Amino acid sequence: MRRDAGVQAAKTKVEDGMAYTIKEGDYRQYGASAAGGGVVFTFEAEKEEDCSILLYGKDGGIRQELKVPESCCRGAIRSVFVAGLKAESLRYNYKISGTVVTDPYAKRIIGRERWRDAGRVKNEFRVCGGYSDDTFSWGTDVHPEIPRHEMFLYKLNIRGFSMDAGIPAKERGTFAAVRDKIPYLKELGVTTVEFMPVYEFEELILKEKAVLPEYISWQVRKEDQIKPEACAMPERVNLWGYAPANYFAVKASYAKGQDAAVEWKKLIRALHENHMECVMEMYFPENVNQNLILDALRYWVREYHVDGFHLLGENLPVTQIAQDAWLRRTKIFCAGFENAVLWHPCRYPHLYVYNDEYLYPVRALLNHKNGGMDAFACQQRKQHQYHGFVNYISDNNGFSLRDLFCYEQKHNEDNGEENRDGSDWNLSANYGVEGRSRKQRIVRIRERQMCNAVAVLFLAQGVPLLYEGDETGDSQEGNNNAYCQDNPTGWVNWKKDERYAWFREFVARMAAFRREHPVLAADMPKQLSDAKGTGYPDLSYHGENAWISDLSGERQSLGMFYCGKEDGDGTEGEKFLYVGCNFHMGPTRLALPKLPGKKKWYLLMDTAGTVPKRGGAGGCAADRTLRSVCRYINRKIRLHYYESMETFLHDQPSQASGHERLFCGGVIQTGIIT
Q1: Phi-psi region at 568: left, alpha or beta (left = phi > 0; alpha = psi -120 to 50)
Q2: Contact of 90 with 110, CB cutoff 8 Å
């Protein structure tokens, strides 16, 4: 209820002849909200501060300034009800102690409807808040709540993913274009899409204005040699959106039509209809109010049915977010949490550690940068009962997957920072030529390494994440920080799609193989013992001799033998998976453990083969009996399937005899037994 007692209503004449009645607001909801023939404005300001509401016309000019009585205050919150004001045509800002402030709780931002709009120069890039009607028909929409062991994350930027010529011109850079690509993502095996910022941020990288002290006034004269800098269109843009922002408003320029909020909701609803999740990446600078952060996350869940958040920034209220009842079934991804939160028993684990801990040891081994098998083994088995881990080898902060094997050094000159930006610690390799090469030997090595990276990623226990375009062999020409490259460098090149169709198929088959064999993504951490009473440890390591391994020193090969009943696949019996990794340039031998009964090793998938030649059909020949099994290249990743001879007499057994197999140089081989 609004408190009117003791507050004198004020009437203010407006230029168009209308009169607005100002009363005390109800303080219940920040921002501007429609209520009973007017609008309630609620914002943060001290009682002693001089506050007013600025109303703008369609031309961007100030139409009226409404004073906010100091009596309309509780704590440090000011709230007024303006009767007679139409919410649908609202354009407003606050003026607090002489400073014009855009409402941080505004659900719509007016002034950035077009991406990189040069017409904004005349208003000096000013924006204002507007009203957004949250009404939307969700129908029977429900949150998919994909189990952790089934998740496959795909990270994308709306423009980066949809600006290439392979997208219809009217839809480029919009939510609609991404919605049209949902079948593509689903075919790839993606279950969860992470969106880089889709809330309102300033895409123009504006120069900071020099502000003179109050006691200095500048009267411009013709003879002045130094004059105030004229407002000009910036040359660079912020493609990714990591900047101070309006956290309750959808990015208007991502809309194909006039209503970005509705189009974003349609995209989320379409994802849910395809049993896919929506995760929003949220970047909060250090000075953002922590209460606002919590309010924003709750708002996106309540009004937009968002399934999760990837939190970035400093001084985040991570513990409060993790414990918030509104967000209890919302997946929270963050670089780290307090141990007390991570280890807290819960019926629906919703916390995920998301950092580059997996990236470095795996890159070091793949590119021969003094990587260690001990660190690699730890990363491959990393798992926890009450929280998950996100694994990735490449993302937007660094080289693309293809460039990781094409460039030894970063090449960020086009960013305009003299190549000083971006990480210098990439653990990348070029295999003989920096950048593009026509030498087929080098090209084939690089593409084998791409396969190696994907295979290792999907064979690890943590949730795999792929960055946009990596499955199509996309290159950023050696730029490892393409934050301002709103051009083909920073866009997914869909025209290359057919050239790398074989690799896209490889990614899809690895995702399918992971889904069909939950032993690769068990919810419980491996105990390195016979925890399930199967007669074998749930995970054991092997070297030249079975059951004996040395993970220390310069060793570059390892056999990992998984054993256990596969929860959730509906089958009975025991299943075994053997992953043999050889990162040496030369061949090595790894022992295969003795199998129970008459079971024997069978080769399912081999990445040590040959990369398909250009113009070929690709490097995949699916086994007729095993749905997800393929033969692929890489330095070696081989999947073996073990089953009784009676069941697989028609399958081609591997050439391994006894319990030993020769692993080619730079290989990762894997196998499964049932």
Answers
A1: left
A2: no
Give, in degrees to the nearest 5, the angle at Cα 319 between 313 and 323: 130
**pTM here?**
0.89
Q: Which two tokens stand for residue 384?
A: 């926890």
The answer to whether the beta carbons of residues 314 and 285 sit under 8 Å apart is yes
Alpha helices per DSSP H over 201-315: 260-273, 290-304
| One-letter amino acid of 107 | K
Closest by Cα among 378, 376, 386, 328 to 353:
386
Query: Could you please report the per-residue DSSP string of 466-496?
Result: EETTGGGT---TT-S--TT-TTTTTS--GGG
Q: Give the mean pLDDT per block of 10 residues along the chain (674 residues).
A: 46 57 95 94 97 95 95 97 95 97 98 94 93 94 96 98 91 97 98 98 85 66 66 89 97 97 98 98 96 98 98 95 96 95 87 97 93 93 94 97 97 96 96 94 91 93 97 96 97 84 93 89 89 86 88 84 62 65 80 80 67 46 28 33 24 39 53 42
Longest dimension (CA), the chain: 98
3-state secondary structure 629-672: CCCCEEEEEEEEEEECCCCCCCCCECCCECCEEEECCCEEEEEE
